[in-house]
Amino acid sequence: PVAIRREDYTAPAYWIDSVELTFDLDPAKTRVLNRMTLRRNADVPAQPLRLHGEDLNLARVLVNGQGTSFKMDGGQLVLENLPEGTDAFALEIFTTCAPAKNTKLMGLYVSNDSFFTQCEAEGFRRITYFLDRPDVMASYSVTLRADKTQYPVLLSNGNLVDSGDLEDGRHFAKWVDPHKKPCYLFALVAGKLVAREQKIRTRAGTDHLLQVYVRPGDLGKTEHAMNSLMASIAWDEARFGLPLDLERFMIVATSDFNMGAMENKGLNIFNTKYVLASEATATDTDFANIESVVGHEYFHNWTGNRVTCRDWFQLSLKEGLTVFRDQEFSMDLAGSPSARAVKRIEDVRVLRTAQFPEDAGPMAHPVRPDSYVEINNFYTVTIYEKGSEVVRMQHNLVGRDGFAKGMKLYFERHDGQAVTCDDFVQAIADANPTSPLAQHLPQFKRWYSQAGTPRVHATGVYDAATRSYALTLSQSCPATPGQPTKEPFVIPVELGLLSASGTPLPLQQAGEAASGATSQVLVLTEASQTFTFTNLDAAPVPSLLRNFSAPVVLDIDYTDAELLTLLAHDTDAFNRWEAGQRLALRIAINSIAASAFPESATATSEPKILGTAFVEAMRAVLRNPALDAAFKELVLTLPSETYIAEQLDVVDPQRIHAVREAMRTELALALRADWEWAWEQHQNTGGYRPDSVSAGRRALSGMALNMLCIAAKTTGDAVWPGKAYQRFKDAGNMTDRFNALTALVASGHDLAAPALARFHTLFKDEPLVIDKWFALQAGAPDRGGNILPIVRQLMQHPDFSLKNPNRARSVIFSYCNANPGAFHRQDAGGYVFWSERVIELDAINPQVAARLARALDRWKKLADPWRTAAREAIARVAAREGLSNDVREVVNRALS
Ligand code: B3K
Ligand code: ZN
């Protein structure tokens, strides 16, 4: 496979002004008539027209109505004898394709007897020959023809302008999209679907029709998605002045989808997982995810669709920015400062457990990559989540109002265009000429070009004689593939200083007047810089990187006492949580390094690993009446095995697992009375509402129940597992029910088996719930190697299918990606399983296979025997002939 390089970008040789598509939909053989108007691009030398195509049968090509000669070259359709000059000409192409055979779920495919499309990034070429690149923007008009009984609903982008009956029981619908768009935003849907409808009038006074299309039985689960859509529309108008620019906005759900959702203009297509919710079938997390994904896709309507990407190297232009927007949307809806902090902590947790490892591994790439083999492999946490952090830093460097001004300028300059990441930062900086962003613009842009997670090392020295505190911040960034050395970044470090007893201290930098502020942003631009604060009576405790002001690793030698002070008193909720995580991490790492294996705790033993100070601090948080339940749940959750592994140079996954489990058991036992209290105090009262406050209460009571069942394993107590079973049976909502089931499964109690059986019977007709049932079992804590055989058995279950991405993910990914203690087996059985599944899936769906292939990205960090076994497993996959480009790129990079 050949790499595509960003520096090779050239403008297209032709423009496509308009496209008229006619589909005769048939699962076995769909006929596609594509009539385009093209123009040669006068800015580039005259050359043949090369159109992309994949898995198409070509029947006819006409230029200005006449037959013409053409040739095929590597799948591309090449036309050499086109009219001279730069006048528009008509090109008509007739092809057929086979949607029912399309298991890649890219292009036009069939799911549950309905037709769907997925065109981003390069799926449109599987529908017709085209200039399949985002900088070619055209006007679309689309006619769909199909059997009326089987496909009563026919949808495409834009407005319905005509519809009616045809002969032979067929009917048609014609759609015209009023906006020009790149072909990756094209969509069509046809099938037996029903819609929840909502008419709205926006602030601007325009009327719109909103529709959420689902299969007939699912209509009752669409209210939350519709509410989320209405909230998204209102939010974008209020916060950024960006209105809905369509008369009709449609969301359609399908259960066969490669990712979460797709922002096709006016016709978003969603994985059912991010649309369907009822209190009986969806958890609080599902409700929150639906809100954020509906928001994300809607916000793309401006950031991505109105202004799109020049080329796929600029993917983060739309994705990083749109993630930033959906994160802000969720925070604004959550409301209170504490609920905002909870959302921020959750987002940072994802960044640190998924993106930091990516940035340190073989697939590391800049937010704006320099090359790729398969673009589908670059829809990564770096492009999305780190990209969002890079936008967030800009937001913080210019301020909230400054950022809104910058966005306004961005749309004034680029509406209707396909642009680059540079264009975006330039607009934000130009709208804020005196900001630190504008001052350091070229250097700031290194966040787009340099891969790797920067490390900031902080040391503070207090001088009693001058009553001053000198804080030295130094930065470095590890080498990444293709980038041996790095230049310094612009790193905004938000800081506060606390007294030893936890009081916030006024900040006064040497040579500056006192402002009275207790928090400020230091902008680190050099490799090392010292900031001196004066007027301090004693050595302060620094609270650095507040609210996680930059996507970096902060190295700082806190004493336990300092961390306990921050945990108890910091005014920055993020750093309070962070202090608790640092304490827990320190304990875990020391215990992993100690030669002895952790002793198993008993009902009355001291918390040997955790120590009394940590346990008391956790108890204080749990009992603190001033803190929200959601925040407590985050503080009391120990750092994940993946996050712990990232802190170590050499990883013994079994030891990490054993230590973390032992820590959890100690915490469960030592706080037994407090968990009981937490359970009693946080019961649902009144009906179910998915808001952040009640969700937080359910999260904490669910955690308490889980901890009480873990404790019961040691004490032999039967009361709490019994209560968990009772709750599992009686719960009025899926969150409480699933938490109770999880408590039984996670503690390995005998009641887990009957509960799982009962759960399956109850929800056998709810695919999304059955996904949870599979995922829970494949992700359960390993006991003596029991999980791999369970996973193999689950794959034999009549409900299992490798072809449905959600189902494949629920079993295989839950095991390989989310259950390190069970996956990293001494006997390499987990890796053998992984390599078999990667190969098997690759023949069906390369995109999903390539995701799974990344489960062993970090193999070089593993201790033996895992390291050797992992390399062998990857090599086994790499040795296969006929691998997709997707999987080939991932395994080649892993081995390089
Ligand atoms: N833009 C799509 C992702 C497409 C992935 C293609 N492999 C969804 C999103 O980010 O909103
Ligand atoms: Zn997106």
From TrEMBL:
Domain Peptidase M1 alanyl aminopeptidase Ig-like fold positions: 452-556
Aminopeptidase N-like N-terminal domain segment(s): 20-185
Keyword Transcription regulation set for record: no
Enzyme class: hydrolase
GO biological process: one example: proteolysis
Keyword S-adenosyl-L-methionine: no
Keywords: Aminopeptidase, Hydrolase, Metal-binding, Metalloprotease, Protease, Zinc
Cofactor: Zn(2+)
Annotated ranges, domain Peptidase M1 alanyl aminopeptidase C-terminal: 560-895
Reactions accelerated catalytically: Release of an N-terminal amino acid, Xaa-|-Yaa- from a peptide, amide or arylamide. Xaa is preferably Ala, but may be most amino acids including Pro (slow action). When a terminal hydrophobic residue is followed by a prolyl residue, the two may be released as an intact Xaa-Pro dipeptide
Peptidase M1 membrane alanine aminopeptidase domain location: 225-432
InterPro entries, sorted: Aminopeptidase_N-like_N, Aminopeptidase_N-like_N_sf, PepN_Ig-like_sf, Peptidase_M1, Peptidase_M1_dom, Peptidase_M1_pepN, Peptidase_M1_pepN_C, Peptidase_M1_pepN_C_sf
Superkingdom classification of source: Bacteria
GO molecular function (one): zinc ion binding
EC number: 3.4.11.2
Function statement: Aminopeptidase N is involved in the degradation of intracellular peptides generated by protein breakdown during normal growth as well as in response to nutrient starvation.
UniProt family annotation: Belongs to the peptidase M1 family.
Official protein name in the record: Aminopeptidase N
Source organism per UniProt: Acidovorax temperans
Gene this chain is encoded by: pepN
